[in-house]
Amino acid sequence: MAFYVVQFLTGLASAASLFLVASGLSIIFGVTRIVNFAHGAFYMIGAYIAFTLTERFSGAFGFWGGVVVAALAVALIGVLVEMVLLRRIYHAPELFQLLGTFGLTLMVEDLVVLIWGPDDLVGRRAPGFKGAVDFFGQNIPSYDLFLIALGPVVLGILWLLFQRTRWGVLVRAATQDRDMVAALGVNQKWLFTSVFAVGVFLAALGGALQIPRDAVHHAMDLRIIVEVFVVVVIGGLGSIVGAFVAAVLVSELNAFGILIFPKISIILVFLVMAVVLIVRPWGLFGKPEAAARKTPGLTVNPWRPLTSNERLAALAALVIAAMLPLFAGNYALTVGSEIAIFVIFAVSLHFLMSVGGLASFGHAAYFGLGAYGVAFLAKMAGLPMIVCLLLGPLLGCMGAAVFGFFAVQLSGVYFAMLTLAFAQIVWSIAFQWVSVTGGDNGVLGVWPASWAASPSHFYWLALGVAALVTVALRVMVFSPFGYALRATRDSLLRSEAVGINAKRIQWTAFVIAGTTAGIGGALFAYLKGSVFPDNLGISLSVDALVMVLLGGVETVSGGVIGAIVYKALNIWLVSQTDLSKLVLGGFIVLIVVVFPKGIVGMLEMLAQRHRKSSPPGSSLLAKPIESAE
Amino acid sequence: MKLTVQDLNSHYGPAHILFDIGFEVGEGEVVALLGRNGAGKSTTFRSIVGLVAQRTGRIMFEGKDVSARPTHEIVREGLGYVPEERRIFTDLTVEENLEVGRQPKRPNAPYWTREKLFSLFPNLGEMKGRPGGRMSGGEQQMLTIARTLMGNPSLVLLDEPSEGLSPKIVEQMVDAILTMKKEGVSIVVSEQNLHFARLISDRAYIIERGRICFGGTMAELDARPDIRDAHLSL
Question: What ipTM was estimated for this complex?
């Protein structure tokens, strides 16, 4: 019995940091409507700076002073980020805001390694809380008891701040109607900045307070942000009480999940989240959101099928690509195969995102499931390659069917957060379930059959499949199903009013996209000869998003172009620099701020301008994407 | 002149809504902006306070050109705005709603305190702690006016204050507007209801399809039944 009580208390102690970070995210979202992906990064910087202050400068501030100064310093960094970056993207579609703050996260990950090095840093214990309290023969660290008390205290302080101060009243008013607050003479800019500073302060404090419990390392940002997304999805985005309750719930589920499913403890959290989403899609304490403007979809150029000339051109490009083995060496062919596979991956996400308006932040899950599907079939069942290639993607299809069912219940940022959380769950399973997946060691020795073994043959195979998949998805865009899907993207209510079963259409699109990604993953497994948890990791999901964004979300062929340019750039970049995340992150931020329409979008815009020499409507086309309101 | 609007043009996306709107409001005057549904009354007000992004033209308030300034700065000059849809903060109590509108005292404008507003709108004084979402339409309309007055404006744009209210509440609204006028607040009131406008206004402009097509005193308007009948549904 005492053991369970201690387990319960440990869970409560972990909830404190989680609550701090999640409440910060919620407060920022409430007012600015931005889901700040970089929140985990601020949490991590908070921990690193607190480590330095308490280790090197403990004379100046002491331990507690160091923790608070660290949080304040990070809040200041947050203010800079808000003023320089976020102010430019408040009116951009949600997807761009998520991606922009994600780019920031990537940059921070490289920067902390640059400053603090790649090793785990173990911080000192908090003075006054070094010992443990004996509880019927079980030890509870006294610092845990401090954290348990801290959670409700912070909740109380936040409550007072929001209920009893003018600032709090203004923030609550702005959460409901920002324009009206401005029309009453309140300077929104500074309100937003101050809210962002408070939210970042909370995240950094959460990170700083973790140092006596956990080592500080450069991957702690992604770990916390996924848990925080799960917390706000369960508790309801924008609700501080919800963040508190859900943080406790998730931490307890983690604490006891380890006892029930020691290998895959995260499954319990997932089950609870699934139940909450079915019963209350907007979270336990959240409010149903008014249908917001959907992610990209401000298409001013109507989509059309290719003209016969354009078809010939596409065919010619394909023929030229197919002639690559005639003059290129093996390395170039392997790179070519990889690019072709990523074209498959990118067009599958493009289909979901541009045609369906559903921006998935966890699309790599289905790519990786396809790869694992092949690995299982080839290694365990010993099936021939052609059978594996046909059946392997079915694992991606099944994953997409299960997760997609829940994901399409939500939209916008909730959809993005949920798909990310699902992907992370799949990753955790692949990572933790060592007896089946091999864990970190992956599954090795997945080699193609002899007919596809030579680089040129494999290249032709990948190119052929990529061409087929691209054509098939394009045909679907201009089929009745594609029209229905685009209708649900442009207006869910109106599409339902004309008799479209929107959720079913979106679910179908999700499964199609997942299966297609699985095809890419299946080929990828054979290309590399092995499968690792990284094949379904977050960074791969983001690669896909960047490819689509780079090509242009609002175009039909953006996925293909984006994949080719991005993958080629990426392979070159990794060979050139160790700081690829820093460069990539900066690149993402740049696209979001400067080229929101992507390569194909820019080309179309130029072509449009060239065709009709500035008719009255053209200035509208040339404008960057703005909010529809 | 208190407020001068010249050559105001506004667009929503590709749609041109307002065409060369121009009108004037004198110190302490109540001016009615009359027109049918969709004529452009609300867009005119929203453009003046900077809530319409695509607009051109000159807006002079107390001799200063405010047309390029952001919304909160225009409002802080003393130009108050009461939106048509009321836009009460439904989660906030009556007192908190008033708090959002509070701005410092202004030398050239009447100073409103909570107590003064509660005596102007006695209903509000009886429900200080009630959330805005649990008030009747009439009470919300009073709250939205009181909230704007907390900013001590010297001129208020009132967008259709009588819309959807019971006759008894409309009477209270007339009294409240006349009290505001007596205190020295200049007012532009948009209305479809000529009867209501006549009770409070000194002059009137008629707007139709985004263009001003008449301007004059109430007596001059009464002398032109043709204009009245062509542009206003009675």
Answer: 0.92
